[in-house]
Design goal:
Blueprint: H1 2-8, H2 22-36, H3 39-70, H4 73-76, H5 81-126, H6 129-134, H7 137-179, H8 182-229, H9 231-236, H10 240-292, H11 298-315, H12 318-340, E1 361-368, E2 377-384, E3 389-394, H13 400-407, E4 415-420, E5 423-424, H14 430-435, E6 437-440, H15 451-456, H16 464-473, H17 477-481, H18 500-514, E7 518-522, H19 530-544, E8 548-553, E9 564-569, E10 572-577, H20 579-585, H21 588-614
Parallel strand pairs: 3-8, 3-9, 6-7, 7-8
Antiparallel strand pairs: 1-2, 1-4, 4-5, 9-10
Helix pairs in contact: 2-12, 3-5, 3-7, 3-11, 5-7, 5-12, 7-8, 7-11, 7-12, 8-10, 8-12, 10-11, 16-18, 18-19, 20-21
Length: 615
């Protein structure tokens, strides 16, 4: 079952279903624990919110008393000073409690954003190589960016707009119900119900438009990053206009959806204003009638008007806020969706830590396939004794590099087992296993930073002297001395400022700096010229002394001195032995050796002829 899940898994993140009503609440539920870490700040913030709204709705009531006192001539001179002081105190209290709420909640919001971002980042690094080979980096980057921004937006809109509005609606309805007849409450409830239903229906329809805009935005971003990362390929084939057309196609989709979103927003706002205008007119007509027939005072009229202003002003933004909250939930849900991607390779609950100064490796009848329809390894068995150097050779596609990926546990085997010091890899923690291995890959990708940083990445706590020593061991210092900025020279995106050989020597220096008990060289000299290859080969042999070493190579001249050589073909080991034994056997290895010798002689002859022609 486990194998089936692995091979059939896909990692494309589909947008959340628009029709699901459970998703928003599920997303809020997943976000809540990050906020509840500061529960006392949350509770005090809510208390400040309620206090601010109590002060806010009390201001019109004090104002009503002042108007009623002023409307009676005999009491105008004796206007209570206390009401003026209370008016000022309440106005200040509203602002004070609002600011206190923001001060208390600022840390909660930012820490929630940080912790969610960090968890997603760590999870992405914990996913298998299969996921990262299939991912769309630009789209994932944009999903994380929008998700981070949306967490802050969701908290802001909820705490600073929705909750205050709900509290204020409750307080206003309470005042109207206790101070005046039920007609005011009925008008308020009917208008609020009509407003909310209209806003929700239209906003839900608009969310689909916004989602299409976001999908087009992500697609455009993915194409742009992919195109820029492959800048040289674009130039090689003169396809700048082709790339621009692909990019513009997504931008046009975004443009159409964004325009439709803006137009629909205007219609939403107009409909909301019709409902508010009708409700305010009905309330003021009823209040004016009350003043005329003597059941209400002039202060009551002012109070009702002030309460309506306080009630409907935040409702003016409800459509925008509701849309933004729904979109924020969708964006957060999409980012949380990254956390839902299955970790194909995970530590066993009882996993052991590998702590060993020497390492012995054994492949025991291993079968493996990236896709079940195309087997890569079949019945592979061999061992690398502690301190020995074993080389694996074969034609391209024979499965050599897959051995390194399995040893690093980027994937799990389909059948059989790989053992380190007698322990099945699946019973060891990934961290301790990978700490014991350093690899020089066939295709070296460097960080867009300095040469020093890229070498030190092998052991981030290494001193500058240790980094320089590793560079010398990799025969890299001669090249570095020629650079104006030396070790502080930046290598560019993916190391594009360096040649293939220079990048590979940086990778070798990085592996040597890590200084592990197990070294893996995966075509480590494939991009080097013959002279540099010989120098690097001496470094590899020196670094391999006292360490268990697995050398994966196409060039047979680089593995002549190995303790053992395995010859692979179509995912199977077809020959094994030392260089001398395999030459004497006159089999596949001997044929490969003879062919490479002829190629080398031909290359030397061409070089000599070229030199003679130039002289």
């Amino acid at each position: 079952m486990r194998r089936s899940n692995r091979h059939s898994s896909t990692f494309h993140l589909d947008p959340p279903a628009e029709s699901s009503s459970a998703h928003p609440w599920k997303t809020v539920g997943r976000l809540a624990p990050y906020l509840w870490q500061h529960k006392w700040r949350v509770l005090f913030s809510f208390a400040c919110l309620v206090a601010a709204k109590l002060a806010n709705v009390s201001v019109p009531m004090v104002f009503k008393s002042m108007i009623d006192d002023l409307s009676e001539p005999q009491r105008a001179v004796g206007l209570p000073i206390l009401l003026l002081v209370l008016y000022g105190v309440l106005k200040f209290a509203n602002s004070m409690f609002t600011e206190l709420r923001e001060i208390l909640f600022a840390r909660v919001t930012q820490e929630a954003v940080r912790r969610v971002s960090l968890e997603v980042f760590r999870h992405l690094h914990a996913l298998s190589l299969r996921f990262h080979l299939e991912r769309q980096t630009g789209g994932i980057s944009r999903d994380m960016e929008r998700g981070n921004r949306s967490i802050s937006s969701l908290i802001t809109y909820t705490l600073y707009s929705i909750l205050p509005t709900l509290v204020e609606i409750g307080l206003v309805i309470g005042i109207l119900a206790t101070q005046y007849d039920g007609g005011f409450v009925l008008i308020t409830m009917l208008s609020l119900t009509a407003y909310v239903i209209f806003t929700v229906l239209i906003s839900n329809w608009r969310i689909g438009i916004r989602r299409r805009a976001n999908q087009a935005d992500s697609a455009a971003n993915t194409d742009a990053i992919d195109s820029l990362l492959n800048y040289e390929t674009v130039k090689y084939f003169n396809n700048e206009e082709h790339e621009a057309r692909r990019y513009d196609a997504h931008l046009r989709e975004w443009e159409d959806a964004a325009t439709q979103s803006q137009v629909s927003l205007s219609w939403l706002n107009m409909g909301q204003q019709v409902i508010i205008a009708a409700a305010v007119t009905a309330m003021m007509w009823r209040a004016t009638a009350g003043v005329n027939n003597g059941t209400m005072t002039l202060g009551d009229l002012v109070l009702v008007n002030a309460l309506l202003v306080q009630l409907y002003m935040p409702l003016n933004f409800l459509g925008v806020i509701y849309r933004e909250i729904r979109q924020a939930l969708a964006d957060i849900e999409r980012m949380f969706g990254l956390l839902n991607v299955h970790r194909e390779i995970a530590d066993a609950p009882d996993a052991l830590a590998l702590n060993a100064e020497t390492v012995q490796v054994q492949f025991d009848d291993v079968d493996f396939a990236y896709d079940r329809k195309r087997p890569i390894l079949s019945g592979v068995s061999f061992s690398v004794p502690a301190g020995a150097t074993v080389a694996v050779v074969g034609e391209s596609g024979s499965g050599k590099s897959t051995l390194a990926r399995l040893l690093y546990r980027f994937y799990d085997v389909d059948r059989g087992a790989i053992r380190v010091n007698g322990h099945d890899l699946r019973k060891l923690t990934q961290s301790s296993l990978r700490a014991a291995i350093a690899i020089v890959p066939q295709d070296t990708i460097l960080f867009n930073d300095t040469i020093f940083y890229n070498i030190q990445y092998g052991r981030p706590d290494a001193s500058r002297e240790e980094v320089i020593a590793a560079a010398e061991a990799a025969r890299l210092t001669g090249f570095i001395r020629l650079l104006p900025q030396g070790f502080d020279t930046r290598v560019g995106e993916r190391g594009l400022k360096l040649s293939g050989g220079e990048k590979q020597r940086v990778a070798i220096a990085r592996a040597l700096l890590k200084n592990p008990p197990l070294l893996v060289f995966d075509e480590a000299t494939s991009s080097l010229d013959s002279k540099t290859e010989q120098a690097i080969q001496a470094s590899i042999e020196s670094a391999s002394r006292g360490r268990t070493t697995l050398v994966i190579a196409h060039r047979l001249s680089t593995v002549m001195n190995a303790d053992g050589i395995l010859v692979m073909d179509a995912g199977r080991i077809v020959e094994r032995g030392t260089h001398a034994e395999l030459i004497a056997a006159n089999g596949r290895y001997a044929q490969m050796w003879a062919l490479q010798q002829r190629e080398d002689e031909s290359a030397e002859n061409m070089l000599e002829n070229s030199l003679e022609a130039t002289t």
